[in-house]
Design brief:
about 100 residues, elongated, about 70% helix, mainly alpha
């Protein structure tokens, strides 16, 4: 069995290309605020979906625990992400308020 192809896949090659992030110049605070609102709405929708799946399972309408676990995990990840973004917003606000002008 020849494993050189597999080994070549996992060998590290030096990065020669330097990437720069693409930043849109027309991002205003309103767009960032709208994105945050949409994120909160999506998190709320995922939480509601998880609760509906829990109700279905508790009432015996669904016997597939796989769908229940997927819905709960999506809701948990979305909530964790939303809380992390909120914490960053608060940290940014506090940093701006502590600046001396």
């Amino acid at each position: 069995m020849d494993v050189t192809g597999v080994l070549a896949q996992y060998t590290k090659t030096p990065v020669t290309e330097k990437r720069t992030p693409v930043v849109s110049e027309d991002r205003s605070f309103g767009q960032v605020l709208d994105a945050a609102k949409n994120m909160v709405k999506e998190t709320n929708d995922l939480q509601n979906t998880a609760q509906i799946e829990e109700m279905k399972f508790a009432l015996g309408l669904a016997d597939n625990t796989h769908d229940l676990m997927i819905a709960e995990r999506k809701a948990q990840v979305a909530l964790n992400y939303t809380v992390a973004v909120r914490d960053r917003f608060l940290q940014s606000y506090q940093t701006i308020m502590n600046m001396q002008i």
